[in-house]
């Protein structure tokens, strides 16, 4: 028996309205039941509404309230129990604009680790090269970076050529770049199976190469060429490797079990969908980076002004960071659950 019906309604109505809103989001395919915290919250709202309906059974003063709660509980039962059937449906647009950035932010700690390891490697690479400028072959993986100094390479690249050396071969070159870059990135992810150790070493090595190259070009006075060369495609390629490293350390942590509950199977099941989304994001970024590197990055001044290339790269990087850190957020009303 409810002694104070008015107080009961005032106390419980916000929860009923929130349940209504969540059920509407589920009908629109926006409710993510793979998020355990979200699923528990919706279930608690449903159980509360069910308990409220039970409390007013036999209470004849408010037939409209009883009918409302019966409808709400019925809809909740149908939506919650159909969620498991619908969760396998893949909605490409929703995955692109919401799932990818939300997944990145859900595992953002791995991104911070990945960035930290790369920066540490970059610092070590720059220091090593500062002590031994003739030891570049020990660090650089590409022969053309070893065989000539940055100034010699810039002079060669900027030398007027009668023909386009990539004429008729840009698509093939682009495909080769995609294959190589995706291979490197996916190794960073897969090395997470070594409890994250392989991922850590790969990120550190990539950072060392980047740091050495940057130090080499900057100390030779070729920093403008360096930015114009790397930014157009590197603004996607380097973050893609960092995201692959992010997925690798997430996988390594799940295998080790640091700070997580449950057994190994539970831990792997909890991160499986996140790893798949991060891998998909890496693949998309690498495909675009391969296109830009083959069709844009290979052309230097005077054919293509460095200001245009650098500006293009900065815009791309800013757009990507906005997408990763700020897009895909759910709109919430004031006072709504965070």
UniProtKB/TrEMBL annotation:
The chain crosses the membrane at residues 109-131, 188-218, 238-259, 271-291, 303-325. Signal peptide: none annotated. Keywords: Membrane, Transmembrane, Transmembrane helix. It comes from the Bacteria. This is Stage II sporulation protein M. It comes from Phragmitibacter flavus.
């Amino acid at each position: 028996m409810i002694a104070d019906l008015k107080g009961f309604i005032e106390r419980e109505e916000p929860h009923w309205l929130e349940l209504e809103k969540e059920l509407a989001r589920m009908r629109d395919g926006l409710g993510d039941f793979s998020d355990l915290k979200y699923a528990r919250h919706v279930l608690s709202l449903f159980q509360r509404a069910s308990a409220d309906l039970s409390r007013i059974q036999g209470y004849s003063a408010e037939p409209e309230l009883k009918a409302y709660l019966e409808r709400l509980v019925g809809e909740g039962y149908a939506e919650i129990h159909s969620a498991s059937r619908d969760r396998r449906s893949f909605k490409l647009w929703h995955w692109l604009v919401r799932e990818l950035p939300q997944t990145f932010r859900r595992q953002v700690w791995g991104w911070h680790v990945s960035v930290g390891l790369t920066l540490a490697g970059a610092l070590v690479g720059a220091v090593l090269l500062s002590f031994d400028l003739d030891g570049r072959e020990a660090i650089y993986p590409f022969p053309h970076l070893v065989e000539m100094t940055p100034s010699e390479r810039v002079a060669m690249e900027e030398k007027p050529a009668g023909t386009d050396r990539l004429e008729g071969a840009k698509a093939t070159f682009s495909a080769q770049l995609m294959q190589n870059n995706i291979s490197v990135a996916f190794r960073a992810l897969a090395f997470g199976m070594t409890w994250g150790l392989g991922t850590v070493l790969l990120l550190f090595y990539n950072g060392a190469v980047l740091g050495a190259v940057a130090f080499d070009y900057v100390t030779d006075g070729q920093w403008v060429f360096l930015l114009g060369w790397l930014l157009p495609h590197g603004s996607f390629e380097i973050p893609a490797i960092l995201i692959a490293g992010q997925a690798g350390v997430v996988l390594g942590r799940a295998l080790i079990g640091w700070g997580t509950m449950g057994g190994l199977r539970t831990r792997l099941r909890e991160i499986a969908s996140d790893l798949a989304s991060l891998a998909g994001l890496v693949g998309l970024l690498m495909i675009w980076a391969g296109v830009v590197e083959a069709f844009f990055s290979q052309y230097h001044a005077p054919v293509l002004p460095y200001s245009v290339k650098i500006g293009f790269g900065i815009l791309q990087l800013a757009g990507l960071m906005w997408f990763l850190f700020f897009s895909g957020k759910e709109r919430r009303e004031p006072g709504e659950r965070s």
